[in-house]
Amino acid sequence: MAGDRPRIPKENIIDPHQYTENCCSKNARRIVVKPALFNSDVWADKHYNIRVQHGDDNGARDGIEIDVVLELIDNTFNHVINYSLKYGKIVNFPPFAPPKSTRIVLQDLVDAVEDFLNVAVEYHFLDVDTYEITVWTAMTNKAFRIREGQYIIQLHHDKTILHQMVKGTYQQLHSFDRK
To answer: Which residues, other chains included, contact 62 with Cβ-Cβ below 8 Å and sequence gap of 6+?
Structure first.
């Protein structure tokens, strides 16, 4: 028979020495969680710089300022690396062959769905902890042209989505939740 006095909630006691299941073992104990830090060496191609400073035949290109582009690169960096590990050919590895290097498009769909930011970039692995990122061009326009076979990483409020342009349409390959 339960009384009227408030009950003390039961606490979940976590045993740090307990064996639990992980990705590859039914009996494993976590030893440590350690963040991995990577350096990103960001460059801007002359074409992008001209578009930022002078615009194009249609006038100034609003919304492609370097701080906005850098924020998109920062918000998608870990996702680009993870997608590259899963699908390959997103990050370029030596020996580099510039005409054949993979160029991807980052799209920021967080604040705008109509005229969202598109940024064409190349990621190159330089060292065990360093990636070189070159910004080729940027445009806030839904009509931004994507090449056949090109990868697109869309940034949303809660996730990123990896697409590839296949026969003129976006084919969704994978998605990751944002943390």
So the answer is: 140
Cα–Cα distances in angstroms (integers) from residue 123 to residues 57, 63, 168, in the given order: 29, 22, 24
Whether the pLDDT of residue 76 is over 60: the answer is yes
Give 144's strand partners: none
In this prediction, residue 1 carries a pLDDT of 55
The DSSP element (H or E) to which 132 belongs, if any, is strand 130-140
Among 29-33, 113-117, 157-161, whose mean pLDDT is lowest?
Answer: 113-117
Residue 113 region by backbone torsions, left for phi larger than 0, else alpha for psi between -120 and 50, else beta: alpha
Q: What would the two tokens of residue 16 be? A: 């740090």
Q: At residue 8, does pLDDT exceed 80?
A: no
- The overall longest dimension of the chain from CA atoms, in Å, is 82
d(CA 72, CA 108): 7
Distances 146 to 10, 103, 170 between C-alpha atoms, Å: 56, 10, 9
Angle at 138 between CA 140 and CA 44, to 5 degrees: 155
How many angstroms separate the CA atoms of 87 and 102, rounded?
13
Closest CA relative to residue 144, chosen from 112, 176, 101: 112
Q: What are the tokens at 112?
A: 């705008």
